[in-house]
Amino acid sequence: MSTETRMAIEQSTPMPQRSESGVSVRYETKVFSLWDRKAGVEVAHAFTYEIAWIPERQCWRSFLCSVNKLA
What is the pTM of this model? Predict the structure, then answer.
């Protein structure tokens, strides 16, 4: 595992499982390599997702919060 991947995983901290509204929310960071056409190389990116339990629908929702290019 690369240093960048390890750093991205360590920066992904779980949020409290229950808030006052009873909604379960947490954040997950996944690292993917994407092809950079201009540079002609693969570049690692950290994708951070917010994952929340929606009680009204009785299902999980995943929302892409940010994409960061890793050095």
Answer: 0.58
Best CA proximity match to 53, nearest among 25, 12, 19: 25
pLDDT tens for the chain, residues 1 to 71: 555 555 555 555 544 444 555 567 889 999 999 888 998 999 999 999 999 988 888 888 899 999 998 87
Closest CA to 27 of 52, 5, 54, 58: 52
**Identity at 44, one-letter amino acid code:** A
For tokens 């901290």, what's the residue? 13
- Rounded Cα distance, 17 and 15, in Å: 6
Which H or E run contains 15?
none
Taking every pair of C-alpha atoms in the chain, what is the biggest distance, in angstroms?
48
Distance of alpha carbon 48 from alpha carbon 6, whole angstroms: 14
Q: Residue 29 and residue 27: Cα distance in Å, rounded?
A: 7
